[in-house]
Amino acid sequence: MPTAPIDTIRNFYAALAAGDAASALGLMSADIEWLAMWSYKANRPGPQGVAEGVFVPLQRDWKTFEIVPSEYLAEGDGVLSIGRFRGVHGATGKSTDAGYAHLWTVRDGRITRFRQFIDTLAIAQAGQ
Length: 128
Hints:
By secondary structure, the protein is α+β, with helices and mostly antiparallel strands. Helix content is about 30%, strand content about 45%. The protein contains four helices and five strands.
């Protein structure tokens, strides 16, 4: 029996919080579509595209960061996560606390689509 979509997304955030990027990537479908408002984008579909375009640059550019979901809403294959991105920029040493909404689509226990909405001004100010 496949995992409920909301549990898949909770497992994704838990893997990131534990520093286990491999497990987070393992929850993605081979053709995941990753749509972001921020400069970290997957330039091609699939977990490798997310790793190269999102995970690697985040770790390179931020001294510390955490993605802290505080609320989940789920219906069918869709899951909405609302929370905060908190971090310290590596080059400037400035902190950010940016609100986000992540909209996920999960099918058969695999994440097939991610859409990000985030306070880009708060992120940009940390990098300046």
